[in-house]
Automatic annotation (TrEMBL):
It comes from Peteryoungia algae. The keyword NADP does not apply. This is Glycosyltransferase family 2 protein. The lineage of its organism: Bacteria, Pseudomonadati, Pseudomonadota, Alphaproteobacteria, Hyphomicrobiales. InterPro entries: Glyco_trans_2-like, Glycosyltransf_2, Nucleotide-diphossugar_trans. Pfam families: Glycos_transf_2. Coiled coil: none annotated. PANTHER family: GLYCOSYLTRANSFERASE, GLYCOSYLTRANSFERASE 2-LIKE DOMAIN-CONTAINING PROTEIN. Residues 23-152 form the Glycosyltransferase 2-like domain. Keywords: Plasmid.
């Protein structure tokens, strides 16, 4: 299908507005939440509501968010990325769009305005993800000030750049059309516990059966990749093998994609375990990889097994 170009931003006024909710799951990252989320006030088009979902009220300093120019609500959920995202979905049944963000993702000021325009002009799009200018998840992480500077220095994309099909949204910034979610009774798979490794791929591939999944060059952001509150290396390593195989069984991932994903992670962990990055537990990840392979060979493999290891 030929990609569609977006019209100029001021043409968005020709269409009725959408109700756009920003949903942020978090856990044990109180300081980064307080540092990053107030930046949403810079959006040219403010969200209609912000929901922060965490296992404990102490995870969020609501006083630090009290003066934001839109409603902010805290909701409590059992820990687990998929559970928390589902709790956000259940809390706003009348939202048109939910923009799921990681608690360490910074948006360009035009992000939500461009997001609204995209969904209004493309009724067949059900999931969209943005263009990440820098991703601290692949390195030591990016300080907040540096992330903000990267956004200030970013060039405005040309108007003739088009959205394009993508295999999956990126969970750190992934917007979902809620009418499809409700009609098709879609949810994030809670059998992917804790950090929910590849939950964004699973959800995107299920949604792709009903509508388009796209990436937009006009939705700009920076993923800080803050290292606090992350899953242990052992659990993550187990998930790097168990979750792709589970998704193959669900038919939300092909064997080709799963084998590529697993081989890349296993090779990276095996090679770098001898000189690991200071911010990565390579030995834990490799041990988790091997434990999952052992469970697979014995017919005991399941993503939920990580709940019994640490």
């Amino acid at each position: 299908m030929k990609p569609r170009s977006l019209p100029p931003l001021n043409n968005a006024t020709l269409f009725p507005a959408l109700t756009i909710v920003v949903g942020i799951p978090s856990s044990g990252r109180r300081e980064i939440v307080s540092a990053v989320i107030p930046d949403l006030a810079r959006q040219n088009r403010k969200p209609d509501q912000l929901l922060i979902c965490a296992p404990a009220s102490d995870d969020v300093d609501m006083a630090a968010l009290a003066n934001l120019p839109f409603p902010v609500q805290f909701i409590k959920s059992e820990p687990g990325l998929c559970r928390q995202r589902n709790a956000i979905i259940d809390a706003v049944p009348n939202a048109d769009i939910i923009l799921f963000l990681d608690d360490d993702f910074l948006l360009a000021p035009t992000y939500i305005a461009e997001l609204e325009r995209l969904f209004l002009r493309n009724p067949d799009v059900d999931v969209t993800t943005g263009t990440v200018l820098a991703d601290g998840a692949t390195g030591p992480g990016i300080p907040v000030d540096e992330g903000l500077a990267l956004l200030r220095d970013a060039h405005t994309p040309a108007e003739n750049l088009s959205i394009r099909e993508t295999y999956s949204g990126y969970g750190c910034n992934m917007a979902v059309r809620m009418s499809t979610v409700h009609i098709c009774r879609l949810r994030f798979d809670e059998k992917l516990p804790f950090y929910g490794w590849l939950e964004d791929v699973d959800f995107s591939r299920v949604v792709s059966r009903f509508g388009r999944v796209v990436v937009s060059p006009h939705l700009l952001g920076v993923h800080l990749g803050t290292k606090t509150g992350r899953m242990s290396g052992l659990r993550l390593g187990y998930s790097q093998i168990a979750n792709p195989i589970y998704l193959v069984g669900k038919r939300s991932m092909t064997w080709r994609h799963a084998l590529t994903q697993m081989t890349r992670n296993l090779a990276s962990n095996a090679i770098r375990v001898w000189r690991p990055e200071p911010w990565v537990d390579r030995l834990g990840r490799l041990t988790g990889n091997l434990l999952a392979i052992s469970d697979f060979l014995r017919g005991r493999l399941s993503p939920q097994n990580i709940q019994g290891i640490d």
